[in-house]
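Saturday, quiet lab. Running sequence design on the C-alpha cells for the scaffold JK sent over.
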C-alpha cells in the first residue's frame, strides 16, 4: 500500500459567477500551479485549489 500526502486539492471549475462565488465561499483560491492538460481541454474554466493543510482553518 502506498501513502500519498498532499497539501491541496486541484479543481478545474466552471466560470459562472455563481459557481465561483460558491468555491470562494468554501475557501478555494487560485491554483499555484495549473495542469496544462486541464487548461487545454477546458480553456474557460478557472483553476483553483483547496488547501488541505491546517492553515486552511
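Result came back. Writing it out in full:
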Amino acid at each position: 500500500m502506498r501513502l500519498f500526502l498532499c497539501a491541496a486539492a486541484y479543481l478545474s471549475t466552471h466560470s459562472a459567477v455563481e459557481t465561483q462565488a460558491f468555491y470562494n465561499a468554501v475557501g478555494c483560491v487560485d491554483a499555484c500551479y495549473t495542469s496544462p492538460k486541464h487548461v487545454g481541454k477546458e480553456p474557460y474554466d478557472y483553476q483553483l485549489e483547496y488547501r488541505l493543510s491546517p492553515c486552511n482553518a
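Notes for JK: The two ends are 29 Å apart (CA to CA). The chain has two helices and three strands. Ask whether to fix the surface positions before the next round.
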